[in-house]
Amino acid sequence: MLPEHPHGTWETSPAARWEDAFLSGNGRHGALAFGDPYDDRVVVTHHSLVRPDGEPRPRPPALASRLADLQDRLLAGETDAAESFTDGRPLRWVQAFHPAFQVRFVRDTVVWRGYRRAVDFATGVAQAWCGGWRGRVFVSRADDVVVQYVTGQGLDGEVFPDPRLAGVPGGLGVGRGVVLTPYGAQLTLRCRYPDSDLAYTGTTLAVVRGGRTSVGACGLRVDGAQGLLLLTRVRRHLGELDAVAEAAALAEFIDGDDPAEDTYTALLARHEALHRPAYERVSLTLDAPRGERGLPGSELLGRTDGQALLERLFAAGRYHLLSASGALPPRLTGLWTGEWDTAWSGAFTTDANLNLQTASAPACALPEVTEAQSALVQGQLAHWRDNARSVFGTRGVVAPAHTDGESGHAFHFQRRWPMHLWTAGADWLLTPLVEQAETSGERPAWLAAALADVALFYEDFLTRTGPDGRIVIVPSYSPENRPANASWGTLNATMDIAAARHALRTAAAWHPGPDAERWTALAERLPDYRINADGALAEWAWPGLDDAYDHRHLSHLYPVWPHHDITPYDTPELAKAAHRALELRGAENHSAHGHLHHALIAARLRDAPRVADALRQVLTGDYFHPSLMSAHYPARDVYNADAAHTLPAVLTEALLQSTPERLVLLPALPAAWRRGEVRGLRTRFGARVDLTWSGATCTALVRPDRDADIGLKTPDGGDGHLRLTAGEDRELNLRTR
């Protein structure tokens, strides 16, 4: 049976392009399943696959000795002084993410009858049916293996790994191996990068039920089989890989009287035991017609004013986010690509995109995602220390704006984007990890140490003061914008002020004592936010710097989202100015992340119509492929996970917001969402919340895991108070207006 909403999607034809392929992944390996009964293709990816560029890995520029001169020049009004703050090297991107290969089963003949393909979000299985043939694909979270299982009568054809994907470099050295075994065959594909000692090797174990096997033109020839199980792993390595050992490790999975069927069943059971509970922790149901819920995804994408589309995109977003997160968090393309020429190197762009994609993780009960982001950060902290020392001459850490997952060094310099001047990155990247710690009630020791490192950086860096005696952040950078009357590297970007204040206060809260007193005092000396002549929160708090409104980034609203430094409840005048800044902000090139970032901030400011309008921009802009993975620009231009992964966060923020001291219910409910239910949302004071609403009433069931004493903001704008006891559920019956 096809999965019903909200736990899957389906189509009536195979994927014509790799962008339309259904996705599976375990946060290490990924799979793109086309569902073609004639050429049954699965593109295999792996988070570790980044192409070496033939040069030594760059280090951050050694600029610390020139920092004081730059600060003097900027403070003296030399607005373009930062344009020469570089060591003269040309712009260099991080190493590019790429696919491994495709595993293909090309059949001799196909009976084309009753075709369908589907992906089940609750199991992670993508499958297709046609004329008695059935193909199933999933990537095991338990056993870290790509599993393909084909069944049917008279399966005749050839199985082989194929490296021929779009953009594959001409100098890629390819070696193949086929070894027949009692259960089928061992297939090996080794690919050595041009001008490099690095390579990656794919090992596929084929388990064949019935029929005959022989060595084919490129791989394994199968005749008259009834079942074919393919188990694939990819490893990136130096030198040679022991293919025999790799195959032996895969062979350990083979079991049962019917090895193909029994092994598939056992692998799926172990995988599902991990994947299904994670996926099912949270669910969202809106007031959608049942008929729309059953539509194929490509048809549903045309019903842009319906609730069924939002339901399915919420479910797909959580599924894809979970599937892309494990060894690392999602890249710009999640965990997937079908070509080597991946836009923006398929990197982790950390100045906006990564945190937008992972924004829903704490509230939507996906600690696997924040654990993956933690793994990225922990693996690069030593490089972050190099950045602080080399560029700024300080202790502590500075995060880069781009990383390939291997290097955390900041070396991306361009006159228009002097990314190495961005000092807010460490606080930005650690914020969701702090939120997860508040949600779970657990404070990892490594995170406490990292927060202290950020505070140490600010202690050493924040040494300049202005005429008013307050600290001046110089140089300062607001990604990826500039003042209308100055250059990109400047003074007192609002994001930098907010990040420094949050980082120092958070570190103080995690490290009580003399350090906390010193860091708190430093935070108090930071400049105030500035309201400009338009009544808007200024992107730069330095007098005389004019705002440039038409830009996709909203970095200056960082104190609104993800922080709660500016709120309608505690700082109403600043919230009014932040709202004015949001009104004035243009969409520039209509990047999907810009629209959804806009919606997240609007939700914090309780502006439901603006949330609905930002969602409308994305839903009507043709950003989503039939796979329900998204694009960066309208008209499905440039495969990119920002919209797919960020959309659940927008819907969640419209329904529920929390801090360790506050619960906000239905703060920005769009008028069209007349009835609905969300189950399993997590709060930062350690409770699960089930929320239902209909008409003028709503019910919230709060299930606390620990004691809490919190304020309550009700849907009608009122105030309340909750004293919660661990293990004692509280039901709240409230009015929505």
Short description:
By secondary structure, the chain is α+β, with helices and mostly antiparallel strands.
Protein model, in words:
By secondary structure, the chain is α+β, with helices and mostly antiparallel strands. The protein has 17 helices and 29 strands. The model is unreliable at 1-5 (pLDDT under 50).
> How would you sum up the global shape?
globular
State the end-to-end distance: 42 Å
Instruction: Decide which structural class fits the backbone.
Output: alpha+beta
Q: Care to count the β-strands?
A: 29
How many distinct helices? Answer: 17
Output the radius of gyration.
26 Å
Strand content: 15-25%
Give the rounded overall mean pLDDT.
Answer: 96
Spans with pLDDT under 50 lasting ≥5 residues? 1-5
* Helix proportion: 25-40%
Largest sheet: 14 strands, antiparallel
